[in-house]
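Internal QA ticket QA-208
Title: Verify multi-chain structure generation after dependency bump
Assignee: T.L.

Test input:
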Amino acid sequence: MDISLLIFLSSGLFLGWSLGANDAANVFGTAVGSRMIRFTTAAIICTAFVILGAVISGAGAAHGLGELGKLNTLPGAFMAAFSAALTVYWMTRAGLPVSTTQAVVGAIVGWNWFSGSITDTDTLSKILATWVACPILGAFFAALIYKLTAWAINLSQIHLLRLDMYTRLGLIVAGAFGAYSLGANNIGNVMGVFVFASPFTDFTLGDLGTVTSVQQLFLIGAIAIGVGVFTYSKRVMMTVGEDIMPLNPVGAWVVVISHSIVLFLFSSITLEHFLAVNGLPTIPLIPVSSSQAVVGAVIGIGFLKGGKGIRWRALANIASGWVTTPIIASVICFVMLFFLQNVFNQEVYRDVRYSLSSAVMAHLASQGVEVKGLEPLVGEDISGGANFRERIEAHSDLPRTAEKQVIDAAEIHPMKITEAALAELDREYILPTQAAALEALRGDAFEHRWQLAEVLSQSSEAWRRREDNTLNKAFNKHLSAQLDYIFRLLSSD
Amino acid sequence: MKSVKLALFSKMKVMQGMIDDFLDKVSNGGMKFEQGIATFLEYGGDDVRCLDKVRELRALEMEGNRLRRSIETRLYTEMLIPDFRADVLALLEDLNFLLGLVEDILLAITVEKPEVEDAFKDEFKLLTATAVKTMEAAVLAARAFFRNIAAVRDHLNKVGFHEEEADQIATRLRKALFDSSLGLDRKLHLRYFVDKIDNLADEAEDAGDLLAIYSIKRSL
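Actual output:
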């Protein structure tokens, strides 16, 4: 492994450490703060389950941020992660509550701004919507579960000491589930920006299956989270319990369970598939803020009790942190990228070029896109996604979806199917029929992603996208992920 | 895992047993006190039956003290019920105080041997029984605090009722004493013990008032 790669990955590890230091308190804060569980016990359980969650279920939410901004160089990814980590660390030291997810989103937007790349507003809207939905869902689940729990406890006439014992066990189990969900949902924040540059190769553990390079990357990130839990989270755990309103241990258990359910909902590929197959609306797989879920859950219980115990000033402080965190991370990232590029001569972004060739125009026309207004741009080589979009908007009045189709089709992404690339092909991830279709194109070169996808689709059914409906959603999504992998592998940039 | 669970479970059962034992001691102490007063009024303070009651009540009081200290120590060393620990310990101390109070009153009566006229014996017995009912209702409220929080209010209602009744009986008895032809020395001596027994009901009511607050804190 290249030493420079280690240096660049260190920012992700720093971010992981910050996440562990800050967010572990959301899972075990009230339990440790109220002395129901010892800190060491909590730290061990938290670390173990964060690692399991990140490695087993981390892939789902990790892709979500990739759609917001396509960080395409290692120094750029380093600075995005470093800016987010610095923001989180700085605000934690200042005693201000902070969301790691929001810091990462802000940093990615800062990179987009610096590199002239497009910030996908659809994805950004989805993310912003989850920042509203997450606390609301947390409140809803907490209120419901608290009501049911109180009813069950009163009905059972359980002895106070027995209830104490069950609450402790419940806090441990809920904490483990919460840590798993935290790992699954937030590893995307920590290591998602480095997925494209994973230095690891897949290896097989015999009958146990394959550990992919992404899983290995997530394992390192999860270990960094664990180090953060052990080294810095105790102080945060001891103070987080009563910031917004005092909670008894049963209330603490309800908050942790509700938080875990919300994070699980936003990271479970299995759930998404189940909903899709049954024709139900799916929940987007995006990293959501653990802190927001906890705050929402606490408020849900507070409102159930009439709202009197809620410390509104503390809540206002927390909410203001949610607004300032992404802004600060974005500004820090922009400024630091400037220094990294101009002072340290690092390539913080790879210039993405766009060209509306006749082939591209014909392809767009076949997709039903109105291309007449784009004719003045034919033959031009335009640099930067934001710049290209401005040129499109200046010459035509295409709707947003059509505009996105034009941008995707015109993006120049040189690829060549070389012997070296075919030798590196992950034949566990790509089916034999798919690999055969690629091998038949040995030596061929392509300028645009859609060109390769079309050729593959024509040569093999295994590469053919199925009809867009709920039953085929999972297949098409997997096919898109396979194509993204092939495009990266064959890139000659 | 199974052994850890068993260890946790057995610790919890032991603590439950100790708390139940302690409450039994307080309850028995009240009944023993009532029997002691009845024996004193029937046979006098020097009778061996009366002295036996004093001895038995003293043993109950010492055992109650031992259990209370044991419970306190375990609650802290094993970090049990951290959010209710202070309330539970305060409750146990209030009940332990009642147990100590009945022991003091019975001992004082057998030492000072007030001369109770036959006309007043029934009223003394009634006052004692009512004060003990107040104490008993407080113990039941304490049991409900641990298992059935909704029932605490019902028992505390009875505490208030019996305390009110004890006050009325005490007032009636004091009036009867000072309206009688007894010498002032005997009137004052007997009034002293009326006050002591009535005070038992007052202390039980005070314990009940604090228990009402603990139960509000405990409710979900």
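Spot checks passed. The mean pLDDT of chain B is 93.
Status: verified.
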